[in-house]
């Protein structure tokens, strides 16, 4: 009991993959590859947009924001994940855990807001192309970026304090190799109704509303595209949305899965919780740069030119 003070543990113990502790050193390799792809791929996209004048348009400014958010998300989990799997160092200080929890959820919410902004960009580009340049000015794009950041900070600011008010007198072992709000609050030995309600409110009022507006924007986009007489022009218009639609699926499908498992899968195998949470945090940062590099000719050309200049 020396580990505990009056209200909370001095530290939490992180968990890798239950039942596969002996294989953690083998799992470290694929995890390092995923981090390298996420950090390297998003860095390349950021640099390509920065140095290529033809990419200085709203769509690629939003892509830069998405890449930055993906990199930040990866950097938040990297220290504890690699310590757990590579060094078998499982301890994380209580306050450090709360900071990591806040950052993970903040950058996840920012990514959701950026995907919503990108859907608005596609809506204006396809449904009202003549006003595209006047609607999405640099000032508007900057304002949208700051609004996404401010929303995440303001809405999630109470979370660490709500956790800090809870007494922890039982286990201090978390289910993952990083700190998440649903995981931490379940270890409390007090009523967590307020935490649970607030977490659900955050989920519905931000991620839920973002997804609803993204869906509505695509309903309007499809209605506008269907009014185009030429099949070739229809496909060309829809093709500009494919990368964004894949990024939305890569983000929201794992997020809905992990939320469902946490709230309704109490009797589901523990490894399913771990698997869904890892997919939710690792898949979008890895897939997004691959999706946009594969689907966007402009990005591919910019990357090729950038590496050609480096080689010279």
From TrEMBL:
Domain G-protein coupled receptors family 1 profile: 41-292
Membrane topology field: Multi-pass membrane protein
Molecular function in Gene Ontology: G protein-coupled receptor activity; olfactory receptor activity
Residue ranges crossing the lipid bilayer per the database entry: 26-48, 60-82, 94-120, 140-163, 211-229, 241-259, 271-291
Pfam families: 7tm_4
Subcellular location(s) per record: Cell membrane; Membrane
Any single GO CC term annotated in Swiss-Prot or TrEMBL for this entry: plasma membrane
GO BP terms, alphabetized: cellular response to lipid
Keyword Manganese among record annotations: no
Keyword annotations of the record: Cell membrane, G-protein coupled receptor, Membrane, Olfaction, Receptor, Sensory transduction, Transducer, Transmembrane, Transmembrane helix
Family as reported in the entry's similarity comment: Belongs to the G-protein coupled receptor 1 family.
PANTHER family in alphabetical order: OLFACTORY RECEPTOR 51I2, OLFACTORY RECEPTOR 56B1-RELATED
Protein name, per record: Olfactory receptor
Species per Swiss-Prot/TrEMBL record: Loxodonta africana
